[in-house]
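It is worth pausing here to work through a concrete case rather than discussing structure prediction in the abstract. The textbook approach is simple: state the sequence, then state the predicted structure, then interpret. We follow exactly that order.
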Amino acid sequence: MKRYCFQLQVKPDRIEDYTRAHAAVWPEMVRALAETGWHNYSLFLREDGLLIGYVESDDLAAAQRAMAATEVNARWQAAMGDFFVDLEVPPDEGFLLLDEVFHLEDQLAAADAAAHPSTPPTSRTKDPS
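Step two, the predicted structure:
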């Protein structure tokens, strides 16, 4: 599963309302996200309104298309649209995707492979007996 990170900017005067809306996301919206391929999805909000999102998906573009086909997403995006700075598209289309430059588990796996090039990964674990 691929990891994606994105940013948006919440209007400073709307931060409280945005936070309140996300404390109780509509049950049909969270179900739709899960059913359309959004996994381990989190949003992080800084005091100045910088919003960072993290999501795992086999294919984010496909997950976005699947969400766009749902009625609940249209309602949610309409409700969220006014929260963001300089956004002329629905919020879920206005993501600024960030490039991943480091991931601990990937680095550990690469280090293990370099240290033990001829040892299959499954045989490196100790036998519990």
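Step three, interpretation. Helices lie at 15-23, 27-35, 60-68, 71-80, 104-115. The two ends are 33 Å apart (CA to CA).
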